[in-house]
Design brief:
Length: 590
């Protein structure tokens, strides 16, 4: 173990006479960067000891005496250095739990369950839809009068370190003292950052806290990992307590109940990250704006400004230098993926960025040829440059905003069905396809087709489109891409756009692969990714609230028009509209 953790810097110096000068300089520079990371990891580990979340540092002899010879597992530690919104450096100690074979051996007995990121907005909608006037025996203002809803944010400090682990002997951390080069061991008091099961283990704590404060104290508290949000109408905050700590400033509020319970349970919240009640709270990378409940009947969720700025900065640096390394691609992918976790707009454009992130052949080549200029190895390809430009444009637009409608009785949804067929057609390389959709727009709240306006459209897919699909991804069949075109096409139809604007839509389609890509807003297939990107950008521009559901092919009404059969539709008085295939040469569909 000591030999394995020997200083990389010393190894690079000792090999200096055996390596070419340029390669040696690059290796020494890389080793010095590792030494900087090692110093940061050492400082972070000592901070954990001071905070009481770890013990150490200990020698091998001390650990063997405590656990027994060969009866423990060591994990190599490294530091992850990020920049806070305030500009300060944040150093987090993480561990190579995969390298120690603990992650491959771990089996998750239950999947972690967390509420969606828009949960607090949905809570506000419940209040906005409440029946007007107080109920008998209740002492509160009438909800018929304008009221303000907001939320307060809190953070669970130390997170995984507070989640105990039964097999504690496997949670030991080995780290080299950067000053002496001697290996020491730290004993953590909880789960490790990097362990496969740490998330599931930790989530039991906020789940218990939220369940307790809801059931016992009637507090509106929700969580996402270690961040907690407490929602309240302004009238429910109660009287402030002057001179009290920030979390106890309104003891009658949901935040006050949360702080009281956590203090009583011996698991206090972070005072530094306590954010008081606001009608525009920011948490989980999102800002939830409740200020438009009465003026526009909506709650707006948008990406917080600092996240937008970080994405623009990484993308601009890559575009200016014409270079994107796998590590920068991973950082950009993670930020945009989480920022678009609700709207799905822009997520599909991450497909070329994800491919660069996992370009292992490029990483290995760069490692072997350390003397070669990395800017040539990680140059931007045309699809990658287009994706970066698309992501940058989305961060400057409002298309990533999500509107939660608060009206008490929304109109009935529009029903859309789509289907496609594909068949080989020699000598055509990509075969031939046909796509169709049906749109049913209710005139009133009755469920009868007689009180609905029915529209349909169909088209034979042009050969140039089939060739483009084949060039993006060579395949023997292209039915999945055609099904995706069928899902996207109704929202590009000019005759239907005004009906679909700001409407609730239930879309039914019979291809599971196309459905999954559309729901996730992402696909590893370049062809599907471009169609899905166009779909979600169009949905966002229409502000349509969209739900996609699987329907068996035997009962899919769009099956007939996709095969050229229109007798049933014409008997129902359906109107034919134009079929517009979204442009898949770019990411917007236009």
């Amino acid at each position: 173990m000591k030999r394995m953790l020997h200083s990389e810097w010393e190894r690079a110096r000792s090999d200096a006479l055996l390596q070419p000068p340029v390669a040696t300089a690059a290796r020494i520079a890389a080793a010095e960067n590792k030494m900087d990371n090692l110093s940061a990891a050492w400082r972070a580990s000592l901070d954990e000891v001071q905070q009481g979340t770890a013990r150490g540092p200990f020698s091998f002899a001390a650990i063997e005496k405590e656990y027994g010879y060969g009866c423990f597992r060591l994990n190599r530690r490294f530091a992850v250095i990020t920049i806070r919104d305030s500009g300060e450096l944040k150093i987090r100690a993480c561990d190579h739990v995969t390298e120690s074979l603990l992650n491959p051996a771990a089996v998750r007995a239950e999947a972690p369950v967390m509420p969606p990121a828009d949960i607090i907005g949905c809570v506000g909608r419940v209040f906005a839809r409440a029946e007007p006037g107080p109920r008998p025996g209740q002492h509160r203002p009438s909800l018929a009068q304008p009221f303000e809803f907001g939320a307060a944010a809190d953070d669970k400090p130390h997170a995984y370190r507070e989640a105990p682990d039964r097999n504690h002997r496997y949670m030991l951390v080995a780290l080299v003292n950067p000053e002496t080069g001697v290996v020491y061991i730290f004993v953590t008091h909880g789960s490790l950052f990097g362990a496969k099961l740490s998330g599931s283990n930790f989530l039991r704590i906020p789940t218990l806290i939220c369940a307790a404060v809801r059931s016992l104290l009637a507090a509106l508290t929700v969580f996402y990992m270690d961040d907690l949000l407490s929602g309240d109408p302004r009238y429910a905050l109660g009287a402030p307590r002057l001179g009290a700590p920030q979390g106890f400033a309104f003891p009658g509020s949901s935040q006050g109940a949360l702080w009281a319970f956590c203090a009583m349970a011996g698991s206090p919240l972070s005072a530094d990250k306590c954010v008081p009640w606001s009608i525009s709270p920011t948490a989980w990378g999102l800002t939830t704006d409740f200020s438009r409940i009465h003026s526009h009947d909506i709650i707006v969720l948008n990406v917080k400004p600092s996240t937008r700025a970080k994405v623009r900065s990484i993308a601009a640096e890559a575009l200016d230098s014409n270079t994107l390394t796998p590590s920068s691609a991973g950082s950009l992918f993670g930020k945009v993926w989480f920022a678009t976790c609700i709207s799905q707009v822009g997520k599909a454009a991450l497909q070329p960025i994800s491919a660069r992130q996992y370009a292992r052949d490029m990483i290995c080549a760069a490692t072997e040829d350390a003397d070669e200029d990395l800017s040539r190895k990680f140059q931007l390809s045309p699809p990658l440059r287009a994706a970066l430009e698309r992501v940058t444009a989305l961060m400057d637009s409002a298309l990533t905003d999500v509107h939660i409608r608060c009206c008490a009785r929304p109109p009935p949804p529009i029903i859309i069905l789509s289907d496609a067929q594909w068949a080989p057609a020699p000598p055509l390389l990509a075969g031939a396809g046909r796509v169709a959709f049906i749109v049913i727009c209710p005139r009133d709240r009755s469920r009868s087709l007689r009180n609905c306006d029915t529209f349909f459209a169909d088209t034979s897919v042009p050969d140039q489109v089939m060739k483009l699909l084949h060039s993006l991804r060579e395949s023997k069949v292209h039915i999945c891409a055609l099904e995706e075109i069928g899902i996207a096409a109704p929202y590009f139809c000019p005759e239907l756009q005004e009906r679909l604007r700001d409407a609730d839509v239930i879309h039914l389609a019979d291809n599971q692969g196309a459905n999954c890509a559309a729901i996730k807003g992402f696909s590893a297939s370049p062809a599907l990714a471009r169609i899905v990107s166009a779909l979600h950008i169009q949905l966002a521009s229409l502000r349509a609230r969209w739900w996609l559901e699987y329907v068996r092919s035997e009962v899919n009404l769009a099956d007939d028009p996709s095969r050229g059969r229109f007798s049933w539709l014409l008997s129902q008085g359906a109107t034919r509209v134009s079929f517009r295939i979204p442009n898949i040469r770019g990411w917007t569909g236009q």
